[in-house]
Every structure is written in structure tokens, then in C-alpha cells.
Write a structure and sequence with these properties.
Largest sheet of chain B: 5 strands, mixed
CATH architecture of the largest domain in chain A: 2-Layer Sandwich
Low-confidence stretches of chain B: none
CATH topology of the largest domain in chain B: DNA polymerase, domain 1
Structural class of chain B: alpha+beta
Number of helices of chain B: 6
Number of strands of chain A: 34
Distance between the termini of chain B: 62 Å
Shape of chain B: elongated
Number of domains of chain A: 3
Strand content of chain A: 15-25%
Helix content of chain A: 25-40%
Number of strands of chain B: 5
Oligomer: heterodimer
CATH superfamily of the largest domain in chain B: [2Fe-2S]-binding domain
Strand content of chain B: 5-15%
Number of domains of chain B: 2
CATH class of the largest domain in chain A: Alpha Beta
Mean pLDDT of chain B: 95
Radius of gyration of chain B: 18 Å
Order of helices and strands of chain B: EEHEEEHHHHH
Distance between the termini of chain A: 36 Å
CATH superfamily of the largest domain in chain A: Aldehyde oxidase/xanthine dehydrogenase, molybdopterin binding domain
Mean pLDDT of chain A: 95
Strand order of the largest sheet of chain B: 2-1-5-3-4
Chain lengths: ~850, ~180
């Protein structure tokens, strides 16, 4: 048909002269469903003939499985199905380099909570009863509780892979001549710090419903942040073509990173449904959610920084030791992340980073809000506060004088775009009355300042490929309605609203005229998932591309009708009109009719792939992002010297979000991050204890319940003054950067720094319990160092460092001492990389 | 465990419902599984998080701790009963407009706890709202938007049309040295 054109054939229409929706506080597109109870979370689904599944979980932390006896369980009332690990021999795991999980354990168990048997029955009660009747005999193995124990106990290995003994990952990298950097310094500061593990605690317990349609075709509904990665794991373990597996991510009742891994219960539900030919549901108990974990790694850190008299940083050497728990999860990436983002806030001309991740017999750690970066950020920001204090420099000034410049490349080869940290610091300093009050308040009252930065999406996908990381498809028809298809997953952060608003803005239509279909691997273009704060930037850019193409098509239809060149048309307020004569126009719906008449069925696509990062060394894949967000916080604390009990009186938080898509939603993310950061600073901890020898010596979660896992309630949440800073980034949609994770980062160090300002003692670990403050105060009163925290960092052989000259040294982004280091990161294998880049120039 | 069943008439959102259920089941289970009212959520099923809050005779109750068999003859209200026709209850619209519901999972329970508070006190102070809701956990919002939404809804319910939530709740606080109007 001669009339057929491609959207890109001709210059498109101009956009409306001003933004009408972007930047306004519109009601979320899912707002009504969420306040009426109509949002369908995974556990809200039910289907005819649906059965219920329970997992039998290990009661011992490390053991060989001697035998499994399901005979009693299978004879229980209502039991319809039982699965053991031998039915699913293929391993899985979120990262290609750590495929170390099985849907059900086969030979051994690695932590209390590791799933061994799946039982399905007609009712949930019956499944529960049957699960209790399964008998598993274990032969206990030595257990490892800490990084130090993992170093001292190379055998028996928790896993048969990993860099050494029970060390999953070891890495050492050096950017620039670090020794020379330390020689330039007038003084070298050193601290050892500890960040305890904690967990996401989403309000929604994980749930999955699986149902078959054909003998070899299955649909899996799940509370997952990453339907695409779950899809891949299901295909691998079930041995089915991916095209016959449909994963639908239901809206998540909170994620925070805790629903980013493919999980045992998801795969077991699918396997059970395939075995039974009927729908299978599993909803985890709250206790089981604590065992799924994948939360914040406990990290011990040693930070050494060379500093000139004027406060200029000359070099830093950071060592981190991560307690990974029993499986790989995202751990290799987490390990890199405990060092990667140290360089994006303040100029750090030379930087050495060494790290290990140990396997231990505890629930696996993984990505929690901030993924691997809050721990070293805590260390760095408290360390800077100490440096400022010792040098007699104001902590805010110390930071302001060496901010990373916008549009620069850091010593570890991260490309920074827009950089609004200076404005953030200025806002919280002014707002809190920092200069008038810091160091000058009555004993017991203090202010603490800290900053942070986070990714707006990881630069690379979890597995090597050259396909887009996000895709959007639009369908338009004569109704005037627009259907938007995107694989992104709504986990509460508002991603549905962001992509809908971007599309509505460009097409100049009402949000209500957009129908969303998201997170369905059968129907929606791939989006990698709701992790690494990637959705606004990546799905947002894909939506822009799809919407602009749609606008071009519709404009060409309208142009003929209006007898105005397409490029002079404006789309706004549900109309398409001549920019110079707004009265000369037609409705959007009429314009779509014109376009559909001319071109036939209307549809467009958009996709997004991040720009390539300049780093070309092994490990350079972790850290790059299309844009970095920045945050600064001041915290005011009131500390009781007698008891060590402290209260947070006020928080000032400024966050550089690039550009607000919806300020009310941005505010929600800022306040939610402040809340969660305060929880980590003050009370949240996922910790374990050993049962007495006579009671199995097992390593058990200390408090797998919401009552005992302390988190802030309404009563503890302090007032928050929030400043939204907009420093648009050219890579962001309308300039937008992330806000979901970044504002959490400054909270923990700001609390520690405020306690120092209040009572003059340093608490070098989080969460900060009152007894720590009290002990430090008492120590100081006795003339000892007023400090509570870890005493030393273990001696570790990190191996030969990868030597990477910095941009300032004339480097090219590659390592100079290791052959074929290439651009491998922690998340892929060389083979995969080579396969993926074949034919790539 | 006994699977003995019972049949009762429960009055839910003003409508009588004859329902059969296992005698040991909680009101939460019966609402969700027998009556299909999945608007009531659960976060722990141990009475720790407040997510499953419903109203019984106007009082907020944790439905995971309440035996359904003991609810006969009492008035049960769930989030599904809050709308007035096709219109949102002011609490619902204020929550939606301010972003007081992010993931929305704790929202039904918090809405009902707030409704019970406002039925007793049409002008609660911030401290009174905090106290009334201190048994409800939320992991997304940091609680501020919820407090602001309840204050806004309270104003609407008592007919105070002049009340508006503070601009700072939506646009952030004005940058130091600038007036709110500049932002």
C-alpha cells in the first residue's frame, strides 16, 4: 500500500508548548483500586479446583539429607501431591554466575528454612498438617555463622563452587596509584565499621498461584518484582520452552528488593500445577518470609583515607567483608556494590577496593533498597564527619569543597551526568539552621549531616545480551483510547503512573484514556523488573519513544484533515491542533480515526538501552548507570546520657530527582526512604543465635516475627522537612532520575553523626541500640575512647589487585595487569559475554 | 486438626451473608476465602501488623485473631463497604490523592482504623491519630502522607471545605530563602 509510512519517515509534530501533566500531583492511576480493596495481589486470586501448597523447610542449618519419608504425609486427608528435589534437578539462581539453588534441596540443606519437600492438599489446613507429617532425617555438618568463621573453616564447603573454601567471592581492584595518593596526604584516617543485616519486611507475604492450560503450557501469577527473570528460571528448571510459560507479576504489596529473586515456592507451585493439572496456590507465612530474606548483607568494613590539611581527599582504601548467607542470590553484584559508588559524590582521585563475600548457614542475603551501597556509604559519611571534626573543618564545607563535577568520569570510570548534591547540601544546611546549631547545642542535643547517591537503573542487565532493557508497546484505535503494554512491575513505587503519565503527556490526552497492561510475559514487551531504581528512567524512556512514534502517526492523519503540516501540530488537552491557531484542530479521537483510516491498525513500540559505560575492566559492569541521584540529610537527635536512649526529633532531607514526574509521589518515596533508613539506623536487624548444644546447636533466626523484628511505627516517625531538588539529567525522561532508594542512604550515617554532636561519642555500627550509646558515654567518662563499634578487620588475602589507571592518569578504562580481563562484571560469564558480543563492533 | 464446619449468618457491610466455614477459622479467612472479600489483607496472621483490621460494631479489630464463629449478630465492616455508591469515601479519596497508599497493602486496615477514629472524634489532633494508628504498620510511606490524608478527610467529613493539605505534603518544603509561592 503506497500510503504506508513509518513513523520516523518525517519530522514529527512539535510537542505541546508546556508540560500539562508531568510535574503536577495527579492521582496515581492505581490509586482508586488501592483504596477500595480492588487491587488484586497474588494471594487474592483463586480459581476453581485450586489446591494449596506448603513447603517443608529444613530445621537444621547445615546437613546432608539422609532420607525423606513422605509416606505418612501422603496418606493424610486431602493430600493430592508431594514433590521432592529429585524431580527438579536443574539449579537456578538470579545471576548466571551463581546458579546454586534448587527448587527443593536434593543432597543437603544449608540454612534453617531451606525447602526440602512440597505438599499440596485440598485445603491450606490439610497441606499444613501433611507438611508436619513429612519426616526428614539429617546428618549434621559443621555450621558457619560469621565471615570470620567462614575464613577459618574452608571445609566442609557450603557450596562446591566459589573463589576459595567458603568464600564465595574475592575481589581486589585499584584505580590509580593509590600509594602515591596516600603519600600526598598530610594525614591518614582509618576506621573499622559494621553494618548489621536487616530485611525488607514487605507487608505482603510472598504468594504464587500457578495453573496449567495445556499439558505443557502454564501461567504463574506471583508477587515478584522481576517477572522476566522468574520466567527464565522457570523455563530452566521446568524444562519447558519459555514461550509456553506465562508469568504475570501481580502488584506487589511492597518489595524493597525482597521479591527480586526467583524463589523456590514459585518454581514448586508451577511444577505442582503441571503434575496435578489443577491450580496450585502457596502463600508464605510471615516466618517463611524472614527465611526468604535476600536482605541487607551484614558488612564489616575498614576504610582508610588520605587527607590534606585543607580536607582534600587524596586516596581511599576500602575493604569490605560481606556475610552472604547460604546462597549466591545477587551476592556477587552486592559485593561489587559495596565499593562501586564510593566515588560518585566527592572527588576521590585514587581508590583501592577489596572485598570478600562469605557463605554462612543463614538465610541468603541479597538486594535491599540501596543494594550493597548503604553499608560503605555509612562508613564513608561517618568517617568524613570524624575527619572534619579532627581537622576543624565544618562537615558540610568539607563535602562542598570537593563535590564530583557534573559531566565527569570518576576514578573508577563511572560517568556522572547531572549532579545536584551541592544544592541538596545547601538546602538541608540552611533548613536545619546547621551553621547556627551544629556543635553549639546543649549537651544531649545534636545535628548530623550525611549524603548519598544512587543509580537510576543499573547500566547492564543481569545476563549478557544486546536487547533493550525496557520496552513499551502502544495500541491506538478509533475509540481514542490508548492501550499501553509494558513489562514493568508495580511494587507500590508508582511505576504504572509514571509510564502512563509520560505517554499521556506526549499524546496530550487524559490519564483515564490510557489502559495499562503490565508485567505479563505473554502480552507485554520485556522490562527487566523493578530493581536498581530503573523503571522511571528506562521504561519512561521507552514510553517516550513509543508515544512519540504514535504521535507522529496520528499527526500525519490529522495533518491531512486539517491541511496543516504534521510538524506544526500540537497535542494537548485531548486535541490535535495547529500551534499557531489553536482553534483550528480536532479531537485526539478524530485524529486517530484519520490515522487509522490512512495507515490501518495503529501500533508503535519504544525501547531503551542504557548508554555504554566507559569502564572496560573486569567488574566495570557494576556501578554504571544512565544517571545518578543525589541526597543530603540533616538529622536532629536528643540523647539521654543516663540510658543511652535517643530520639530523632527532626529530619531534613533534600533529594536531587532530576525532574519530578509527580511531586506527590516523589515526596512519598523520600518520606518512605527516610522511614526505612531510620529503621536501619535505630532498630532493624536480621540476626541469628545458636541454640544450646543439647538442643541441636542449630543456627536460628533470632526473631522471625513482625512483633520482635523492630520497625518504626507511627509513634516513632519524626517530622520530616523534604526538599525536592531538580537537576535534570539528559539521560532521564524529561530529565527525571530515581527517588526510590537514594534518600535512604544518608539516614544511617546522619543518625550516627547526630549522636556524636549530641554527646560526643562515636557509634561505628548500625543499628545503634541505646546500650551502645550508654557504653560509649561510660567509656569516655573513664578516659577511654568514647566509641562503640567493631575493633578490627580480619587479615584477608584479597589476591592480586586489578590495576586500572584513572582518567586523570590517562587510562583508557582497561586494566593493565590482567590479560583478557575485558568488560566482565560479576553477573555474567566470559562465555556468555563472548557469545553476546559476537558480531559487535 | 478438626475440619468441623459450621454455618452462620454474618452481617458484612450491612448485608446478611449465610456462610459455612471450618469452625476454627478466623474472620480474616472467612472474609477472604468464603465471602471473596479479598480487600481485607494479612501481613502476619498473628496479630502483629494491623493489616487485617476490620470494624466490628464500629471498633477496629484484628480479623486474624477473631473467630468468625463468634461474629454472628455483630456488624462487620470491611474496606469493600466504605464507598458510598460509586463515590469514594473522603478517607479513600484523600488517601488516593495524596499518595497515602503506595503499595496499598496496609491501606484497607488503616482506612478502617481511621474511620473508627473519625467516627468518635471529628477533629483529632496529630497525636490522637498517631495513637489510634500505632498498631498498623506501613513499610512504604513513612506514615506522613497517611496522617495528612486523614487530617484532610476529617476536615471534609466535618464540612470544612476550606481545609487544604499543606503544599509541602505535595511539592516538598519550599527551599530555604524562598517563599512557598516560588516553588
Amino acid at each position: 500500500m503506497s500510503d504506508t509510512v513509518h513513523a520516523d519517515d518525517e519530522e514529527g509534530p512539535v510537542t505541546s508548548d508546556q508540560l500539562r501533566l508531568i510535574g503536577t500531583p495527579f492521582r496515581r492511576v492505581d490509586g482508586r483500586a488501592k483504596v477500595t480493596g480492588q487491587t488484586r495481589f497474588a494471594d487474592d486470586l483463586s480459581f476453581p479446583r485450586m489446591v494449596h501448597m506448603k513447603l517443608v523447610r529444613s530445621t537444621v542449618p547445615h546437613a546432608k539429607i539422609v532420607s525423606i519419608d513422605t509416606s505418612k504425609a501422603s496418606a493424610m486427608p486431602g493430600v493430592v501431591g508431594l514433590l521432592t528435589g529429585d524431580s527438579m534437578p536443574d539449579p537456578f539462581g538470579i545471576l548466571p554466575v551463581s546458579q546454586d539453588e534448587h527448587a527443593l534441596c536434593i543432597d543437603k540443606v544449608r540454612f534453617v528454612g531451606d525447602p526440602v519437600v512440597a505438599v499440596a492438599a485440598l485445603t491450606e489446613d490439610q497441606a499444613h498438617e501433611a507438611a508436619l507429617a513429612v519426616e526428614v532425617e539429617y546428618q549434621s555438618l559443621e555450621t558457619i555463622a560469621t565471615v570470620e568463621e567462614a575464613i577459618a573453616t574452608p571445609e566442609p564447603r557450603i557450596h562446591e563452587y566459589g573463589d576459595e573454601g567458603n568464600l564465595h567471592k574475592k575481589l581486589s581492584m585499584e584505580f590509580g596509584d593509590v600509594d602515591a595518593g596516600f603519600e600526598e596526604a598530610d594525614q591518614i584516617f582509618e576506621d573499622v565499621m559494621y553494618f548489621e543485616g536487616n530485611t525488607h519486611l514487605p507487608m505482603e507475604q510472598h504468594a504464587t498461584v500457578a495453573l496449567t492450560e495445556e499439558t505443557d503450557r502454564i501461567t504463574v501469577y506471583s508477587s515478584t518484582q522481576t517477572p522476566h527473570y522468574l520466567h527464565r528460571s522457570l523455563a530452566k528448571v521446568l524444562g519447558l520452552p519459555a514461550a509456553r510459560i506465562r508469568v504475570i507479576a501481580c502488584p506487589n504489596g511492597g518489595g524493597f528488593g525482597g521479591k527480586s529473586d526467583p524463589f523456590n515456592h514459585e518454581i514448586c507451585a508451577a511444577k505442582m500445577a503441571l503434575a496435578l493439572g489443577r491450580p496450585v496456590k502457596i502463600c508464605l507465612t510471615r516466618e517463611e518470609v524472614f527465611y526468604c530474606h535476600r536482605g541487607r548483607h551484614p558488612v564489616l568494613m575498614k576504610i582508610r583515607t588520605g587527607v590534606k590539611k585543607d580536607g582534600t581527599l587524596t586516596a581511599q582504601h576500602l575493604q569490605t567483608a560481606l556475610d552472604g548467607g547460604a546462597y549466591g542470590s545477587y551476592g556477587v553484584a552486592s559485593t561489587y556494590y559495596t565499593g562501586a559508588l564510593q566515588t560518585v559524590t566527592y572527588d576521590l582521585p585514587k581508590y583501592r577496593f577489596e572485598s570478600i563475600r562469605a557463605f554462612t548457614n543463614k538465610a541468603p542475603c541479597g538486594p535491599k533498597r540501596g543494594h550493597g551501597t548503604p553499608q560503605p556509604r555509612f562508613a564513608f559519611e561517618v568517617h568524613l564527619d570524624k575527619i572534619a571534626h579532627q581537622l576543624g573543618i565544618d562537615p558540610a564545607a568539607l563535602r562542598m569543597q570537593q563535590l564530583v563535577k557534573p559531566d565527569s568520569i570518576t576514578s573508577n570510570w563511572l560517568k556522572v551526568g547531572s549532579m545536584g548534591l551541592g544544592k541538596c547540601i545547601e538546602a538541608v544546611v540552611e533548613g536545619s539552621g546547621w551553621h547556627q546549631r551544629h556543635g553549639k547545642m546543649p549537651e544531649g542535643r545534636g545535628l548530623g549531616l550525611a549524603c548519598g547517591s544512587y543509580l537510576s537503573g543499573a547500566g547492564l542487565p543481569i545476563y549478557w545480551n544486546h536487547m533493550p532493557q525496557s520496552g513499551v508497546q502502544l495500541k491506538l484505535d478509533r475509540s481514542g483510547g490508548v492501550a499501553l503494554f509494558c513489562g514493568e512491575t508495580e511494587i507500590g513505587q508508582g511505576s504504572d503512573s509514571v509510564i502512563a503519565a509520560i505517554t499521556a503527556e506526549i499524546l496530550g490526552i487524559d490519564l483515564k484514556d490510557i489502559r495499562l497492561c503490565v508485567a505479563d510475559t505473554d502480552l507485554t514487551p520485556v522490562d527487566l523488573g523493578s530493581y536498581s531504581s530503573r523503571v522511571t528512567l528506562m521504561a519512561g524512556n521507552a514510553a517516550i519513544e513509543a508515544a512519540e512514534r504514535a504521535r507522529t502517526l496520528v499527526a500525519r492523519g490529522a495533518a491531512r484533515k486539517l491541511d496543516v503540516p504534521a510538524r506544526e501540530l500540537v497535542f494537548a488537552d485531548g486535541r490535535v491542533f495547529h500551534g499557531e491557531n489553536p482553534d483550528h484542530g480536532i479531537s485526539f479521537q478524530e485524529a486517530v480515526v484519520e490515522a487509522e483510516s490512512r495507515f490501518g491498525t495503529l501500533g508503535t513500540t519504544g525501547s531503551y538501552t542504557p548508554p555504554r559505560s566507559p569502564g572496560r575492566y573486569r567488574g566495570a559492569g557494576v556501578g554504571p548507570s544512565p544517571a545518578y541521584s543525589y541526597s543530603a540529610a540533616v538529622v536532629e537527635a536528643e540523647v539521654d546520657r543516663e540510658t543511652g536512649i535517643y530520639r530523632i526529633e527532626h529530619v531534613w532531607m533534600a533529594h536531587d530527582v532530576g525532574k519530578c514526574i509527580n511531586p506527590a509521589m516523589v515526596m512519598g518515596q523520600i518520606e518512605g526512604s527516610v522511614y526505612m533508613g531510620l529503621g536501619e539506623a535505630m532498630m532493624e536487624e536480621q540476626v541469628y543465635r545458636r541454640l544450646p548444644k543439647k538442643r541441636s546447636d542449630a543456627l536460628v533466626h533470632k526473631h522471625p516475627s513482625m512483633l520482635e523484628y523492630k520497625s518504626l511505627t507511627f509513634a516513632e516517625m519524626p517530622p520530616v522537612t523534604s526538599y525536592i531538588i531538580e537537576d535534570p539529567d539528559p539521560n532521564g525522561p524529561f530529565g527525571a532520575k530515581e527517588v526510590g532508594q537514594g534518600p535512604l542512604l544518608p539516614m544511617m550515617p546522619a543518625v550516627a553523626n547526630a549522636i556524636f554532636d549530641a554527646v560526643g561519642v562515636r557509634i561505628d555500627q548500625v543499628p545503634i541500640a541505646p546500650h551502645m550509646v550508654k557504653q560509649a558515654i561510660e567509656a569516655k567518662e573513664k578516659g577511654k575512647p568514647g566509641r562503640f563499634g567493631p575493633k578490627s578487620f580480619p587479615e584477608i588475602d584479597f589476591g592480586v589487585p586489578l590495576l586500572v589507571p584513572t582518567p586523570a592518569e590517562g587510562g583508557d578504562g582497561k586494566a593493565i595487569n590482567i590479560e583478557d580481563a575485558g568488560v566482565r562484571d560479576g553477573t555474567g560469564t566470559m562465555t556468555e559475554r563472548k557469545d553476546a558480543v559476537k558480531g559487535d563492533n | 486438626m478438626s475440619q468441623q464446619s459450621t454455618t452462620r449468618t454474618l452481617r458484612v457491610n450491612g448485608e446478611p451473608q449465610q456462610v459455612a466455614f471450618a469452625v476454627h477459622h478466623s474472620l480474616l479467612e472467612v472474609l477472604r476465602e468464603e465471602l471473596g472479600l479479598t480487600g481485607t489483607k494479612h501481613g502476619c496472621e498473628l496479630g502483629e501488623c494491623g493489616t487485617c483490621t476490620v470494624l466490628i460494631d464500629g471498633k477496629p479489630v484484628l480479623s486474624c485473631l477473631e473467630l468468625a464463629a463468634e461474629c454472628e449478630g455483630r456488624s462487620i465492616e470491611t474496606v469493600e463497604g466504605m464507598m458510598q455508591g460509586n463515590e469514594l469515601h473522603p478517607l479513600q479519596s484523600c488517601f488516593a490523592d495524596l499518595g497515602a497508599a503506595q503499595c496499598g497493602y496496609c491501606t484497607p486496615g488503616i482506612l478502617l482504623a481511621a474511620q473508627a477514629l473519625l467516627a468518635e472524634n471529628d477533629s483529632p489532633t496529630r497525636d490522637q491519630i498517631v495513637e489510634a494508628l500505632s498498631g498498623n504498620l506501613c513499610r512504604c510511606t513513612g506514615y506522613h502522607k497517611i496522617l495528612e490524608a486523614i487530617e484532610w478527610a476529617a476536615a471534609q467529613l466535618r464540612g470544612d471545605d476550606q481545609y487544604q493539605p499543606p503544599d509541602s505534603a505535595i511539592y516538598g518544603d519550599p527551599l530555604p530563602g524562598k517563599q512557598a509561592a516560588d516553588v
